[in-house]
């Protein structure tokens, strides 16, 4: 197991991350309920980079009391965290985010010097979908009723398996991070509420080149949003991977890494 490294920001905050290899920095931001280990199958495909994998604040580290963090603070908190990490590494990094990490990567890049951004299915809701989503409220009601497992299960159903799955309970029982996800139920609610409140602007002021991508087997609303994010970026390329779902980078690392490598070579 790679030991966690820590840097201290100018305001006294702590940033904890794993560093793999050497070379130009590649910051990997995991998504909603995926742990940092999500990137384990991805890292070997970027051997020429120093892969930097932070632990998201509130998901195991960094916060003194995550319960004090409101939904309105969640995205701002993580954007500041990523910008501080960008400042702490040597050189302008490539920032590669998945799902909620992809949204964070793009927002962080609007106020930081980065070489490029890679965003796989950023967690942005289309306006028509937002009106009926209300996932945060439904999860919060289940938690208040003492049904924490059911609350997090709703998230898995809506995001990871939107087309259904034969035996979800069996799938969850085999999912290594499931107990940790249940323990973080309140944080998942705050994250979802932040996503539901986020409004995609008419233009995202990211000067660096951005690769936005999705998979044909992912949730339709995220595929739609990925294209919408691409449309409001000034220097963006959009790619859709056939037969790949929302788990994209972790589930099909060779295919996606090859496209990312080509994109980065063309914009080096």
Automatic annotation (TrEMBL):
InterPro entries: AB_hydrolase_1 (IPR000073), AB_hydrolase_fold (IPR029058), AB_hydrolase_sf (IPR050266). It comes from the Archaea. Residues 26-258 form the AB hydrolase-1 domain. Pfam families: Abhydrolase_6. PANTHER family: MONOACYLGLYCEROL LIPASE. This is Pimeloyl-ACP methyl ester carboxylesterase.
């Amino acid at each position: 197991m790679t030991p966690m490294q820590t840097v201290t920001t100018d305001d006294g905050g702590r940033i904890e991350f794993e560093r793999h290899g050497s070379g130009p920095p590649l910051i990997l931001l995991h998504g909603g309920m995926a742990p940092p280990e999500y990137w384990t199958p991805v890292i070997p495909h970027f051997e020429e980079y120093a892969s930097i994998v932070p632990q998201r604040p509130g998901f195991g580290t960094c916060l003194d009391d995550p319960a004090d963090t409101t939904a309105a603070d969640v995205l701002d908190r993580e954007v500041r965290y990523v910008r501080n990490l960008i400042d702490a590494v040597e050189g302008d990094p490539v920032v590669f985010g998945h799902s909620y990490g992809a949204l964070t990567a793009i927002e962080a890049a609007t106020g930081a010097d980065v070489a490029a951004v890679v965003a796989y299915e950023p967690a942005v809701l289309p306006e028509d979908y937002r009106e009926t989503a209300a996932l945060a409220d439904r999860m919060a009601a289940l938690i208040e009723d003492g049904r924490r497992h059911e609350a997090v299960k709703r998230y898995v159903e809506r995001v990871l398996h939107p087309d259904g799955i034969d035996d979800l309970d069996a799938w969850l029982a085999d999912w290594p991070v499931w107990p940790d996800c249940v323990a973080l139920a309140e944080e998942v609610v705050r994250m979802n509420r932040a996503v539901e409140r986020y409004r995609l602007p008419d233009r995202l002021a990211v000067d660096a080149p951005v690769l936005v991508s999705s998979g044909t087997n992912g949730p339709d609303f995220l595929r739609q949003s990925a294209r919408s994010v691409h449309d409001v970026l000034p220097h963006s390329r959009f790619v859709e991977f056939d037969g790949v779902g929302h788990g994209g980078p972790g589930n099909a690392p060779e295919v996606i890494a090859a496209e990312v490598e080509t994109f980065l070579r063309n914009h080096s």
